[in-house]
Amino acid sequence: MDWFSSVAEAMGLPGMGSGGSGGGGGLMGLLPLVLMFAIFYFLLIRPQQKKAKEHKAMLGNLKRGDSIITTGGIYGRIVEINDTIMTIEVADKIRIKVGRGFVSGLGSGGQEAPPPLPK
After folding, report:
1. Pairing of β 94-99 and β 103-106
2. Which single residue of 13, 37, 47, 58 could bond 8 by disulfide (Cβ 3.0 to 4.6 Å)?
3. pLDDT-based confidence at 17, cuts 50/70/90?
4. What are the strands of the beta sheet with 67-70, ordered from one edge?
5. Half-sphere CA count of 28, side-chain side, radius 13 A
6. Helical (H) or strand (E) element with 112
């Protein structure tokens, strides 16, 4: 065993020689990785999951008459709604069909779409 210890020490293998270096070096090497994962979880992953959960709840609570904004920036009022597709009215008698997943948020209460730009 003595010969192996001296060879291992000469090769620079950690923890193999008789130098008394403890086995805690491996655990201390993992500590920065664990800390980085914890930081990423609390700053990035958790808020994103919370926002996705709120968006899913908002999509589930949509009903006829709600004002919405699509991901494409279209303002409208829901006229007809089913599981995957909804029909929204964007102006008088102008209706378009939009996938339910493409609703980005609720529009302002009774306010219609923004006024057109001046010519």
Report:
1. unpaired
2. 13
3. very low
4. 94-99, 85-91, 75-81, 67-70, 103-106
5. 4
6. none
